[in-house]
Amino acid sequence: VSEKSMTKLSLLCSLTGIAALYVGAIQARPSLTPIARINEDYVGLNAVISGQVIDLHEHPDGHLFLKLKDESGGVISVPVFARTRSELGEHIELLDNVQVLGQVELYNGELELVPDRAADIQVVHTPHLELSVIDEGCLGELVKTQGVIVERNIVGSGSLLLTLRENGAQLSVFAPASVVRGDGFPELHVGYTLRVSGLLQEYDEHLELKLGDPAHLGVIEGS
Amino acid sequence: MLELLAFATLGVGMGVFTGLIPGVHVNNLTPMLVGLAAGSVLAPMNAIALIVAMMLTHTFIDYIPSTFLGVPEEDTALTVLPAHRMVLEGEGYEAVRLTALGSLGALMLSAALVGPLLLVIGPAYESINPHMHWLLLGIIAAMIVLERKPKAMLWAVAIFLLSGFLGVLALDTNLGVGDGMLMPLLGGLFGMSVLLVSMKGQGSLPKQHITEKPVEIRSSVKSVCTGTSAGMLTGIIPGVGPAQGTVLTQVATRSGGTRDFLVGVSGVNTAKALLSFVALYAIGRPRSGAAVAVGEIIDVGANELLLLIGIALFAGGLATIIHLRLGKLAAKHIQRLPYRAMCVVVMVSIVGISFHYAGLVGLLVLATATAIGLLPAAVGVKRTHCMGVIMLPCILYFAGLKGGLLSALGL
Fold first, then answer.
1. Which of B169, B296, B397 has the CB atom closest to A21's CB atom?
2. Which of A17, A53, A141, B190 could disulfide-pair with B77, CB 3.0 to 4.6 Å?
3. Helix (H) or strand (E) holding B371
4. In this structure, are residues B394 and B244 in contact, taking their beta carbons and an 8 Å threshold?
5. CA B310 from centre of chain
6. Can you tell me the distance from the alpha carbon of A44 to that of A49, in angstroms, rounded to the nearest whole number?
7. How far is B205 from chain A (nearest CA, A)?
8. pLDDT (tens digit, 9 = 90+) per residue, B352-368?
9. CA B168/CA B170 separation, integer angstroms
């Protein structure tokens, strides 16, 4: 075979092969996968999931670590690395609904879905509950709410106890010392409007929202 | 201590096994060792000794199949051609001696440099990482310009883009799982295509010249240093594998010819293996499958790092002796085997391994990669441009463009 024919034949085979693989890759595009179905067989594959943020932790370097749960009951970690997060330009809060396209990876024995870029993350913010509708029926559940700080007390060894008020209703918010000392915990003063998410618990026969991470709290408006 | 050395020796034995069998990598065995350590069947430090010794030995021994049989792995893809060419000239044992010198030299040099390196590794990592795509683009530009003639440069660009797009399709879509596609990609670009070309008119391999003359070390110092530096870079920066390190070495040792290239490039692989453990200690990030395994078993502190380096040096010494013995054995007997039949056996094994790791799609990838791999020889440009298969996906990743490109293509 002459070199010219060889070149033409190789080029033709290369382009045909690439075209066939391109069609195959389009066919193999991921569709929405229930989180409970994702197991170690998925490692290395791309998957799309949609679920509610049930845990959220912010790393000092700017990375955001989410845990998403969907109707299948499965829970998966989603690390949003600092670069992706800065491109996202959108604040993710506890209880928001998030759709993520990413690669399934195994990190320290735990499955996680890693989005490559901000466009792979779609956030649908859930509205906060009015303070007036939060009652015993919500005990033991994650709750997102909003209100103005009317009282601020330091209790125990540096924990913070806030009282939020909105439209005449009140709720205590407890930030343990470990959360108050955590990176990114903002300065809080009476008069600030806060949005907080956390577990609703009962303390001393009063309802109280307990914060689990500095990222579970955001200052909407300073005084 | 004796127990540790015994396990390190066992690791050397396992590294010889993984290095000699094409397609078997250290990463295939480390999950089992991590499991044994987690289940308290194996003491953590013994498991570490096994893993480190196996990893280091593998980086020496895997040059034997790639030299004599022309079978590439990710680590050895670009050495196949020059080393195999030396086999065709009867200098296979010399190629083995050069890779032994490169690997051992780089191991000793990088072990000696660990102290100063610990001071600069953190800031270097932070400053290079955001500009990695520019660094890689610079290397590619150098590779293309070195073709000199405009027509050859155009072919070089075309081959780089074809290989790169094939890499994106195979590695970044749901066509394949994890690294399973690497074998058909590299097997096609650097294995099948090389064997198909070299089979033409070659009845059997020539008698291999066994030289006992000491290797000239002084002239190889520059290549060892180049290989070690490139290995350090690939051991610390994510996404830059031995293949990219090899390209760096090839550009740096270009004027030195095949011998310097082989010394330099074998050093990349071994230095990277050692430095991946240093990166685990210095920046807390593992840069190899073996380092991931070590990180899962123990927290690497200064004492552990010192022990890891000690085990690596012990394993490197043993691996050099075994590498030379096995290389001599292969060189003595290789010409008795019918070359064409052997090429066919190797090609069938590449097809088999590709099918095993990547299924039917893997065979389509292998065929496409082989067709692209035939182009450099047909148009008279360097095969290095085929490294676009890994470099283009890396550049897109570091530039933050991979997702955008995949979306634009509807993937």
1. B169
2. B190
3. helix B339-379
4. yes
5. 23
6. 15
7. 23
8. 988 988 889 999 999 99
9. 6
Burial of A89 (0-12, 13-18, 19+ CB in 10 A): exposed
Q: How many CB atoms lie within 10 A of CB A21?
A: 22
- Measured between beta carbons, which residues in chain A are less than 8 angstroms from residue B407? 119
Q: With 60 as the cut, is the pLDDT of residue A38 above it? A: yes
> How far lies B298's CA from each of B32, B49, B56, B117, B340, in Å?
16, 12, 19, 22, 48
- The token duo for B73 is 């792995």
Structure tokens at B103: 């690997």
Characterise A99 by phi-psi region: left (phi > 0), alpha (psi -120 to 50), beta (else).
Answer: beta
- Residue that is written with structure tokens 């389509």 in the block: B364
What is the pLDDT at residue A71?
87
Q: Which residues of chain A lie closer than 8 angstroms to B371, CB-CB?
A: 9-11, 13-14, 17
d(CA A22, CA B411): 9
Asked whether the CA dihedral B169, B171, B174, B176 is positive or negative, the reply is: positive
Strand partners, A123: A98
Q: Which residues of chain B have pLDDT under 70?
A: 22-24, 28, 70-81, 177-179, 200-204, 236-257, 287
Q: Is the dihedral of CA B339, B341, B342, B344 positive or negative?
A: positive
Cross-chain Cβ contact B403/A6 below 8 Å:
no
Q: What is the pLDDT of residue A223?
A: 62
| Mutation for B interface: A8, A18, A45, A121, most B CBs within 10 A | A18
- The answer to whether the complex's ipTM is over 0.85 is no
Report the b/e string of A133-170 with b at 16+ CB within 10 A: ebeeebeeebbbbbbbbeeeeeeeeebbbbbbebeeee
Q: CB contacts < 8 Å between A and B, how many? A: 93
Which residue stretches of B146-288 are H helix?
150-172, 182-186, 193-199, 221-236, 242-252, 257-282
DSSP string, A113-150: EE-SSGGGEEEEPPPPBPGGG--GGGTTSEEEEEEEEE
- CA of A3: which chain B residue's CA is closest? B378
Residue pair B64/B330 in contact by the 8 Å Cβ criterion: yes
pLDDT for the residue numbered B242: 59
Report the C-alpha gap between A80 and A118 in whole angstroms.
9
Residue B250's pLDDT is 64
Angle at A192 between CA A186 and CA A198, to 5 degrees: 60
Distance of CA A198 to the CA centre of its chain: 14
Distance, CA of B192 to CA of B347 (rounded, Å): 6
Spell out which residues of chain B touch residue A108, defining contact as CB-CB under 8 Å: 296
